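Hi L.,

As promised, Acetoacetyl-CoA reductase:
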Amino acid sequence: MARVALVTGGSRGIGAAISQALKDAGYSVAATYAGNDEAAAKFTGETGIKTYKWNVADYDESKAGIAQVEADLGPVDVVVANAGITRDAPFHKMTPEQWHQVVDTNLNGVFNTVHPVWPGMRERKFGRIIVISSINGQKGQFAQVNYAATKAGDLGIVKSLAQEGARAGITANAICPGYIGTDMVMAVPEKVRESIISQIPAGRLGEPEEIARCVVFLASEDSGFINGSTISANGGQFFV
Ligand SMILES: NC(=O)c1ccc[n+]([C@@H]2O[C@H](COP(=O)([O-])OP(=O)(O)OC[C@H]3O[C@@H](n4cnc5c(N)ncnc54)[C@H](OP(=O)(O)O)[C@@H]3O)[C@@H](O)[C@H]2O)c1
């Protein structure tokens, strides 16, 4: 039977490319989203991938949503914690609300997504946890104290889960995309975007599919010895 993959924020941007690539690789895929019903319906219409709406920042909603996915598709074997937001502001102007929104979605959202599937993965002795972090979690970024903190936190999560899950056949890895041409990046003013591109040795933004291919590799049986690692996919912009 096909393995089941859950992709949070899987209806748009990088997540949509991940959902599609996993489907193409033979997985039964569930893609989640927060509130953009129109984009989710369009995505399902175009791909045939089922979408589920819940807020990853809410533990009870996540648990109930995942239970529904498992009732529909079977136990979740692969989790891609991809849902994420930005609320940028220089630190002296950052509001507590901007801090908490980003922490609740990007960091607590990873806990809320992985925690409900962890016991089942341990029992079945197989699991793949893939967290979509960011180049800015590795290097920090002006006006992103909140975002960078959560994305650096992702790396701590996978390094710790890797140690806890290894004997149960579970791996946990992170991908740190550089700047990818999605709504999140296209929302920044054109001048800022041009300046970002000028700092990328590849001379271009990344494509969502380039991140999706990393996910398909990490999700596979073949990647079982890769655990607790961080894959940088950033066009040569930053080396750890
Ligand atoms: N784009 C980049 O250059 C870049 C670079 C490095 C890392 N990343 C990371 O990659 C991931 C995807 O980014 P993206 O650019 O593809 O984002 P995007 O185009 O803005 O799409 C975000 C997706 O996440 C969902 N989402 C947002 N908040 C959510 C919540 N509270 N609960 C459930 N779903 C939620 C959205 O649902 P709705 O459609 O309902 O809003 C949407 O499906 C993020 O974690 C981001 O930090 C992106």
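The chain has one domain: 4-227.

Thanks again for sending the construct details.

K.
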